[in-house]
Amino acid sequence: MRILLSGLMFLVFSSTALAQPGPPLRREMARAGFLVGQWEGEGWVQFSPDGDRLTGRASGEGEAVLSGLALSWKSRVGTGDRELSENAVSLRFRRDSAVFRVTTHAPGLTLDGWARVAECELSWGLQVPEGQAGAGQLIRYTLRVDAENRLTEVGERSEDEGLTWVQFSGAEMAGKSGAGCRVSEAQPARTGGEER
Fold first, then answer.
1. Which region holds residue 143: left if phi is over 0, alpha if psi is between -120 and 50, else beta?
2. What would the pLDDT profile of 83-124 be if each residue is shown by its tens digit?
3. How far is C-alpha 51 from the geometric centre of its chain's CA atoms?
4. Rounded to whole angstroms, what are the CA distances from 132 to 108, 126, 136?
5. Count of other CB atoms within 10 angstroms of residue 188
6. Going by CATH, does the domain composed of 22-191 fall within 2.40.128.20?
7. Between β-strands 99-106 and 166-177, what pairing exists: parallel, antiparallel or unpaired?
8. How many other CB atoms are found less than 10 A from the CB of residue 92?
9. Would you say 88 and 70 are in contact if contact means Cβ atoms under 8 Å apart?
10. Beta partners for residue 99, in sequence order
11. How far apart are CA 59 and CA 71, in angstroms?
12. With contact defined as beta carbons under 8 Å apart, do 75 and 59 qualify?
């Protein structure tokens, strides 16, 4: 009985130790640390290719969450109390597949997509599911931060499986907090495999 109990305890503690995220996971997530901070500026949204370009105040906020194991990103373009565009994204590194992934949140909708982290840049995207406006389209966002802590956000869509892209949103924002991008040795990008 004592041997069985000892063996069971060994399995529980071993599996718990193996499930704990270690330094390699935090090191991968630290590559997206340039997005931790707050930004404000101007932005625009164009809901259809022949529609009006709507402009407004833009804001963005990135926060390391879960002790650095994920990153939460929120951005908004609006005029006063009118929302023109709002994004909420969580970024994580998948240890099992060694790639970055995102989950994006919108009212009544949560979608998973690919992500790519490069030096001072995050790109992420997804395919709009059936039953939603723009079903089948590919959507991608690119966020870049420079050494002066200025952030550029570009939203694009493709209706031909990524052969051509049309910009539908953009923002230029100055950092209120955060360190900006510290250019170091180039690091290889890791993608979720669905980037087009």
1. beta
2. 888 889 999 999 888 899 999 987 778 899 999 999 999 999
3. 27
4. 11, 13, 9
5. 7
6. yes
7. unpaired
8. 20
9. no
10. 94
11. 17
12. yes
How many angstroms separate the CA atoms of 65 and 181, rounded?
Answer: 19
Phi/psi at 46 (nearest 5 deg)?
-130, 105
Tell me which residue has tokens 């930004």.
39
Amino acid at residue number 104: T
131 pLDDT band, cuts 50/70/90, is confident
Closest CA to 126 of 66, 195, 178: 195
DSSP-assigned letters across all residues of the chain? -HHHHHHHHHHHHHHHHHHS--HHHHHHHHTTGGG-EEEEEEEEE-SSTTS--EEEEEEEEEEEETTTTEEEEEEEEEETTEEEEEEEEEEEEETTTTEEEEEEEETTEEEEEEEEEETTEEEEEEEPPTTSTTTT-EEEEEEEE-TT-EEEEEEEEESSTTSS-EEEEEEEEEEEES------S----EE-S---
Gap between the Cα atoms of 125 and 179, Å rounded: 25
